[in-house]
Amino acid sequence: MTTIGVIGGGQLGRMLALAGIPLGFRFVFLDPSKEACARHLGEHICAAYDDIDALNKLAQHCDIITFEFENAPAESVAHVSALRPAFPRANALQTARDRLNEKNLFQQLGIPTPVFANIESQTDLDNAVKTIGLPAVLKTRTLGYDGKGQKVLRNNTDVVNAFNELGNVPCLLEGFINFNGEVSLIAARNKNGETAFYPLVHNEHRDGILRYSAPSENHPQQALAEDYALRVMQAIDYVGVMAFEFFEVENGLIANEIAPRVHNSGHWSIEGAQCSQFENHLRAITGLPLGSTAVCEHSVMLNLIGSIPAGAEILTIDGAHLHDYDKAFVPGRKVGHLTLRHANKTQLAASVAAAQTLIGSS
Amino acid sequence: MTTIGVIGGGQLGRMLALAGIPLGFRFVFLDPSKEACARHLGEHICAAYDDIDALNKLAQHCDIITFEFENAPAESVAHVSALRPAFPRANALQTARDRLNEKNLFQQLGIPTPVFANIESQTDLDNAVKTIGLPAVLKTRTLGYDGKGQKVLRNNTDVVNAFNELGNVPCLLEGFINFNGEVSLIAARNKNGETAFYPLVHNEHRDGILRYSAPSENHPQQALAEDYALRVMQAIDYVGVMAFEFFEVENGLIANEIAPRVHNSGHWSIEGAQCSQFENHLRAITGLPLGSTAVCEHSVMLNLIGSIPAGAEILTIDGAHLHDYDKAFVPGRKVGHLTLRHANKTQLAASVAAAQTLIGSS
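^ inputs. structure came back:
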């Protein structure tokens, strides 16, 4: 029996466990929150991420360690990695948690990115704006998510105090991309170097938070995206599922960011793919063969932000699969998602419309 | 947040929880075994089924109670039913746990059954054999499963000591049915009387244990089976999922037995139906609308008896979904199942053949 330790016990850890328990895996979660929503699916070590005793306990109780999020302290990652096999490896977390490392890696591998500059002061910013021009986006190098830690600079007034507004922390200034759309690629690579790629996913954000994801059919840039992803995964000998976010532009893709973990834009795969991103992550880190990433019927994922409509309403929608994360309702917080799956695309569209009406009014 | 108490913490409880946690439900299992395999998915009250303190605790910790198996003591069912809503209701368990009650109900509702006689002594048996003839099947009225508690009587020598051989307990003698095949119907009925039926499932047993289940396509007796199931569920105001086992005979179906719970022959529905039998049972007992029972692609379920082949082998099979129950390997014990799902029937057949080879040699 293999026991998997997960740093982080939120919804991603919860869904990893829901995918892994049928494979016979057991789970232990390290999460400082008493309310960590994965806690019902395994042992919960309720302690800070840098608590050495807790990290030792996690290693003692587990055979393999993985990460639900890339912002685990580097020292904690190094500590547990010395005690147990841990995937993704420290180098992947190190790359993904800092936008500068990420962009440098893209550049080094010949993957298009927005023009960028490292910003460690307002002076750096003022100088970079002269080169990159406006509009541009200032982003904190670390700890940004769901649109947090970002500021669009449209004119010189926006620039004046921007570095201070983002907290006087290291930032990246990125040239503004006039994109046609946003897509992500969920990729998996196992310990033997075997890889698998899901279809490119169309994503729609609102207020910086993902709202809508749907796998594409025969996306013209599928092969290009897989090529970029393969370069990154091979360069860092990556093991696990990795998400790549791209801007769609005329005749190509521009890499935005990577996440060294299962990703919100891959949640549709639980029902919509033969083998979900969660199962494939677990297969990858435990050295099992990867599962098929082929789609199963047609599907769309909608995030449930802040609250969840009543089950009696939402479950009447044809093809609705509810994922309630068992988290307290807080405005702007991801508390669940809904996957709509159908063999028939017209019926799927009707279900999506019905769900959006319900979610919009909730 | 609704917490569901389950009497029994085996693989059925485990799969109920795996289906219910995404709906936001929490689970508590009452099971006397320290190794109850559902224990990783919720609170485990480790106590005997007739332990009143444990039953009180279960009721205190739960909003709704359900049953993983029909052999919970009648007094325990009555006790918890007085404290919390409990589905299926005591009358359904009472009917299903005794083959005589079951057969009487079928007869009363005009549902064909084998001829049968109640047997409480060897004399009863000798007399019944004169009327029913041989071959016939002697079955204990209660506690039989997976072919246990049964004896086929082919000639008078088999009859001589049969009542004693089955333990001197009340039995039913049933006329032998020369059937063409065995099918089951998984049906659901919710608190509002809404019903849903999965396609009839073809089942194959070996040594009394289910080995193979596959949903049928346009089975000619689908409507008949649904009519029989509806009669039973309406007659006892049933709430939850119920399984009906039938013998297929020329131009009809003969009812064999019912199970007032999710059923092994419905496990394919986790991947193979839009909404699984586990989710529909939970929807039914919590008063939610039932989910679609339409199939999703094509699927076959194979039981894993005694042991499970290595993941590295079994997971290379295209379309394989492993369900490892996390139970100790014991010869003859159900320790997992495998669902093979494919959009393409030819590929499905190839995957089934590959899996059967692997299981056969494991």
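Chain A touches chain B at residues 1, 14, 18, 21-24, 26-27, 40-42, 274-275, 283, 286-289, 291-292, 294, 296-297, 308, 311-312, 315-316, 318-319, 321-326, 336, 341, 343 (CB under 8 Å). Residues 345-360 of chain A form the longest helix (16 residues).
thumbs up if we can close this ticket
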